[in-house]
């Protein structure tokens, strides 16, 4: 059993980042989908909606970057 875990040890961070990227990917899709829907409903608020969409995008992508950096930070622990 330990031989199998040793063989998988190098790929655990890649698998972990892949799983960590699923949430932000879904979040970005929801943000832009709902943003386009909101702009279609109220075109006069395009500037405000676009600003909020970009802010939500930046905060969501920050989660993906944290998921990328976290394995390197906790590798020594």
UniProtKB/TrEMBL annotation:
<feature type="domain" description="V-ATPase proteolipid subunit C-like">
    <location>
        <begin position="14"/>
        <end position="73"/>
    </location>
</feature>
<feature type="transmembrane region" description="Helical">
    <location>
        <begin position="53"/>
        <end position="74"/>
    </location>
</feature>
<keyword id="KW-0812">Transmembrane</keyword>
<dbReference type="InterPro" id="IPR002379">
    <property type="entry name" value="ATPase_proteolipid_c-like_dom"/>
</dbReference>
<dbReference type="InterPro" id="IPR000454">
    <property type="entry name" value="ATP_synth_F0_csu"/>
</dbReference>
<dbReference type="InterPro" id="IPR038662">
    <property type="entry name" value="ATP_synth_F0_csu_sf"/>
</dbReference>
<keyword id="KW-1003">Cell membrane</keyword>
<dbReference type="Pfam" id="PF00137">
    <property type="entry name" value="ATP-synt_C"/>
</dbReference>
<keyword id="KW-0813">Transport</keyword>
<comment type="function">
    <text>Key component of the F(0) channel; it plays a direct role in translocation across the membrane. A homomeric c-ring of between 10-14 subunits forms the central stalk rotor element with the F(1) delta and epsilon subunits.</text>
</comment>
<dbReference type="InterPro" id="IPR035921">
    <property type="entry name" value="F/V-ATP_Csub_sf"/>
</dbReference>
<protein>
    <recommendedName>
        <fullName>ATP synthase subunit c</fullName>
    </recommendedName>
</protein>
<keyword id="KW-0446">Lipid-binding</keyword>
<comment type="function">
    <text>F(1)F(0) ATP synthase produces ATP from ADP in the presence of a proton or sodium gradient. F-type ATPases consist of two structural domains, F(1) containing the extramembraneous catalytic core and F(0) containing the membrane proton channel, linked together by a central stalk and a peripheral stalk. During catalysis, ATP synthesis in the catalytic domain of F(1) is coupled via a rotary mechanism of the central stalk subunits to proton translocation.</text>
</comment>
<dbReference type="InterPro" id="IPR020537">
    <property type="entry name" value="ATP_synth_F0_csu_DDCD_BS"/>
</dbReference>
<feature type="transmembrane region" description="Helical">
    <location>
        <begin position="12"/>
        <end position="32"/>
    </location>
</feature>
<dbReference type="InterPro" id="IPR005953">
    <property type="entry name" value="ATP_synth_csu_bac/chlpt"/>
</dbReference>
<keyword id="KW-0406">Ion transport</keyword>
<keyword id="KW-0375">Hydrogen ion transport</keyword>
<keyword id="KW-0472">Membrane</keyword>
<comment type="similarity">
    <text>Belongs to the ATPase C chain family.</text>
</comment>
<keyword id="KW-0066">ATP synthesis</keyword>
<keyword id="KW-1133">Transmembrane helix</keyword>
<keyword id="KW-0138">CF(0)</keyword>
<feature type="site" description="Reversibly protonated during proton transport">
    <location>
        <position position="61"/>
    </location>
</feature>
């Amino acid at each position: 059993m330990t031989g199998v875990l040793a063989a998988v040890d190098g790929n655990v961070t890649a698998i972990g980042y892949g799983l960590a990227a699923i949430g932000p990917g879904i979040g970005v899709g929801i943000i832009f989908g709902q943003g386009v829907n909101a702009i279609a409903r109220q075109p006069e608020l395009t500037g405000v909606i676009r600003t909020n969409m970009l802010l939500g995008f930046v905060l969501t992508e920050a989660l993906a970057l944290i998921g990328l950096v976290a394995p390197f930070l906790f590798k020594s622990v």
